[in-house]
Amino acid sequence: MGKKIFSGVQPTGNLHLGNYLGAIKNFVNLDNDNDNECIFCVVDLHAITVKQDPKELRNNIRETVATFLASGINPIKSIIFNQSAVAAHAEGAWILSCVARMGWLNRMTQFKEKAGKDKEKASIGLYSYPVLMAADILLYDATHVPVGDDQKQHLELCRDIAQKFNNDFKLENFLKVPEPLIQKEFSRIMSLKDGTKKMSKSELSDLSRINLTDSKDQIINKIKKAKTDPLPMPQDIKELDERLEAKNLLGIYSSLTNSTLQNSVKSFAGKNFSEFKVRLGDELVNKIEPISNEIKKLLGDKNFLDKILLDGVEKANNIASKKIKRIKEIVGF
Ligand code: AQP
């Protein structure tokens, strides 16, 4: 039986290789399977949990749509829309925030990482972000949610919220408990400058990530400058536990070439990093350059991108408005 897929990407600019290999590549594979019903959301309500420039946000929403299309998602088969245009997301988030428990949210590591030392100054939205994410998913009865490894904990919270809502209102399976779809390998791409930090849009140094809009020269330059260690390429996969930058680069290479980490280690064992980096750069250029060119082309036709969103909003609203109506009846409104 086909899957009902829901997933989202924040329009916070600089969509990067981590977003692509951890999530969007998987979206495309799921979209290509005719048995699946897919909904891909530009989660703009999530984006404003940290400060955004309104003009840039508007551009980033379109750029995220362009990235979905340029990566290979078919807007005729799948729904592509922006979250803020479907009111049920905000309404659902409020109702579910009265179901979720403080203790559950206090355990969320992403909030701790993003709020940093100054958590008193973080927005309430950043704290309650996972509840909105639960509403997003549960409004569409999604059975599967493709995400990167960093979102696993939020998905577990979504499952807990769905189960508590069903128990509180003595309903069996009303809110469908979704399954995460996280790739077994290479589900967390790390910064090119620090193998302990995930590749991220908000990292200040642009050299830490490959953006999906980077040109060939930028990609090759960033790989040249990517951090490694003074030793030759690892001989054995076991060495990678101690050599995080080598592990990350070999992981990226493996993911791009659909190869196992073991095989990639074998192919470059004992060689110089410079030789490997040339091959990695070539693979990246082959994959990313066509996407980058297509994003730039699509961004030249704003009306087309807006039309994709408008169509998607209508379809998403049809589904979500029915579910939120039932949810409101259930809670007694
Ligand atoms: N480094 C990563 N490796 C693998 N997957 C990743 N994802 C993000 N970074 C990596 C996955 O991409 C999807 C969309 O992410 P998002 O934009 O909604 O939010 P995020 O996880 O907060 O992304 P960033 O880049 O880290 O943004 P900032 O810097 O703004 O916080 C998700 O499925 C995510 O797992």
Tell me what the structure shows:
It is globular, with a radius of gyration of 21 Å. With 333 residues, it is mainly α. It has helices at 17-32, 44-47, 54-71, 88-97, 102-106, 109-115, 124-138, 152-168, 216-225, 244-257, 261-268, 273-299, 302-331, and strands at residues 4-9, 37-42, 79-82, 144-146, 179-181. Strand 1, helix 1 and strand 2 form a beta-alpha-beta unit. A three-stranded parallel beta sheet has the order 1-2-3. The mean pLDDT is 96. Helix 3 (54-71) crosses helix 12 and helix 10 (244-257) packs across helix 11. The chain folds into two domains: 4-188 and 302-331, HUPs (Rossmann fold), CATH 3.40.50.620; 206-297, Tyrosyl-Transfer RNA Synthetase. The site of adenosine-5'-tetraphosphate has 20 residues, from strand 1 and helix 1.
Write the layout of secondary structure elements.
Blueprint: E1 4-9, H1 17-32, E2 37-42, H2 44-47, H3 54-71, E3 79-82, H4 88-97, H5 102-106, H6 109-115, H7 124-138, E4 144-146, H8 152-168, E5 179-181, H9 216-225, H10 244-257, H11 261-268, H12 273-299, H13 302-331
Parallel strand pairs: 1-2, 2-3, 4-5
Helix pairs in contact: 3-12, 4-7, 4-13, 7-8, 9-12, 10-11, 10-12
Top-tier CATH class of the largest domain: Alpha Beta
The strand line-up of the biggest sheet is 1-2-3
Count all strands and give the number.
5
Order of helices and strands: EHEHHEHHHHEHEHHHHH
Helix/strand/pairing category: mainly alpha
Q: What features would you highlight for this structure?
A:
Tyrosyl-Transfer RNA Synthetase; binds adenosine-5'-tetraphosphate; 3-stranded parallel beta sheet; Rossmann fold; 2 domains; 333 residues
